[in-house]
Write a structure and sequence with these properties.
6-stranded mixed sheet, FlgE_D2, 11-stranded antiparallel sheet, Tick-borne Encephalitis virus Glycoprotein, domain 1, bacterial flagellum, Flag_bb_rod_N, mainly beta, 2 helices
Length: about 425
């Protein structure tokens, strides 16, 4: 019997050595989760059951448990490297076969799909043609690498303060080339349907107490007729408290009921570069619905002329410049025109019993009957952790502990071998009896 007891101890110690050695071997493996050997004692059953004074029959390996505690998160230079800070697993698909991993090595393949270092597709929510997330539709995430189409300016929002203490210019008539004919000016970029950039310049001319005229040129030309420099004009009056009176008055702009203006007859133009230059239509068009000009926040106070805010919604064409992933898993494409576009959202999986997952190698697991079904959700939702981009989760192996375990397992192996050696000596003594 002692031979079997010692043999079971050697097998147990050998298993412990293998498990500890595997942990040590994977101390540098991203997303690796250490294992732990769990042993049980063995007692032989008799016909009438076990007695209270029964001797043990050895040891057996009851379970190899995986410890899913958090590993350290380290920064990288790859925007698509991802680490999960908290609960959850990345979901990857190998031609439809789902696996789950904490190793966030991700990049794009030749078709723009986000894949891990095994070529498996990262799963998430896709976007429709308008860039809206299709929540509930889990599929292979893909980055659209095509240039972003330009957008013609449709709205300009501007907040300006005009200095009430200024006096009307003494030089007339208005001449954009002569600063003495106007009090202040500012410009805003506008874009046509082909993404060409134009400068809309506003010249503010004080005409009397609480009264101003705003002259508007695009590229220094008349908005509708680029062959002339005659500006469009808007009359602006203010209350005694410095607030803008609405509606504004203009024969060149369409006055809207909400107090905004709309430019409906802009002809985008270009110069031929000659001296003197000849201006002509550039073949593009303005936004079909016109350009809405919102000046309702304009004030007239006794302070320096200031443009407090200025925004417009157009942009030129853009090339893909970089990718970013936020902590909720939303993947953004950044373009050279300063715009961004959602490409999709990463989903994570959680399980009722993570210990029940079946390891399949390559730092991945698959679900089993013990783990339960995968529950999918987005990072930071429910019990799922946050996503950290440009980061990787290191192995959770504590090397110092594993080296101590290695020594203990070695001693256990030697001690059990000594048990067999002693039993052999005893048996040899019996055999040698005469």
């Amino acid at each position: 019997m002692s031979f079997n007891i010692g043999l079971s101890g050697i097998k147990a110690a050998s298993s412990d050595l293998n498990i500890t050695g595997n942990n040590i071997a994977n101390v540098g493996t991203t997303g690796f989760k250490q294992s732990r050997a769990e042993f049980q004692d063995v007692y032989s059953a008799s016909v009438l059951g076990t007695g209270r004074n029964q001797q043990g029959s050895g040891v057996l390996l009851a379970n190899v448990a995986q410890l899913f505690n958090q590993g350290n998160v380290t920064a990288t230079n790859n925007a698509l490297d991802m680490a999960i800070n908290g609960n959850g697993f990345f979901v990857t698909s190998n031609n439809g076969a789902m696996s789950y991993t904490r190793a966030g090595y991700f990049g794009t393949d030749k078709n723009g799909y986000i894949v891990d270092n095994n070529g498996y597709n990262l799963q998430g929510y896709s976007v429709d043609a308008n860039g809206l997330l299709q929540s509930g539709v889990v599929t292979n995430l893909q980055v659209q690498s095509a240039n972003q189409a330009p957008k013609a300016t449709s709205k300009i929002l501007e907040t300006v303060n005009l200095n009430s203490s200024l006096t009307p210019p003494t030089t007339t008539p208005f001449n954009p080339a002569d600063p003495t004919t106007y009090n202040n000016s500012t410009s805003v970029k506008v874009y046509d349907t082909q993404g060409n950039e134009h400068a809309m310049t506003q010249y503010f001319v004080k005409t009397g107490p609480n009264a101003w005229t705003m002259n508007v040129l695009i590229d220094g030309r008349n908005p509708a007729d680029p062959t002339t420099t005659t500006p469009y004009s808007v009359g602006m009056t203010f209350t005694a408290g410095g607030q803008l009176n609405l509606p504004l008055t203009s024969t060149d702009f369409t006055a809207n009921a909400d107090g905004t203006l709309t430019l409906t007859n802009w002809t985008p133009a270009k110069s031929n570069g000659a001296t003197p230059p000849v201006w002509e239509a550039n073949g593009a068009a303005a936004n079909p619905g016109g350009v809405t000009f919102d000046l309702r926040g304009t004030t007239q106070y006794s302070s320096t002329f200031a443009v407090n805010s200025q925004n417009q919604d157009g942009y030129t064409t853009g090339q893909l410049a970089s990718l970013e992933v936020d902590d909720t898993g939303v993947v953004f494409a950044r373009y050279t025109n300063g715009q961004s576009k959602i490409q999709g959202q990463v989903v994570l999986a959680s399980f009722a019993n993570t210990q029940g997952l079946t390891p399949i190698g390559k730092t991945a697991w698959v679900q089993s009957s013990s783990s339960g079904e995968a529950v999918l959700g987005t990072p930071r939702s429910g019990t799922l952790g946050a996503l950290q981009s440009s980061s990787l989760e290191s192995s959770n192996v504590d090397l110092s502990n594993e080296l101590v375990n290695l020594i203990v397992a070695q001693r256990n192996y030697q001690a059990n071998a000594k048990t067999i050696e002693t039993e052999n000596a005893v048996t040899q003594t019996i055999i040698n009896l005469r």
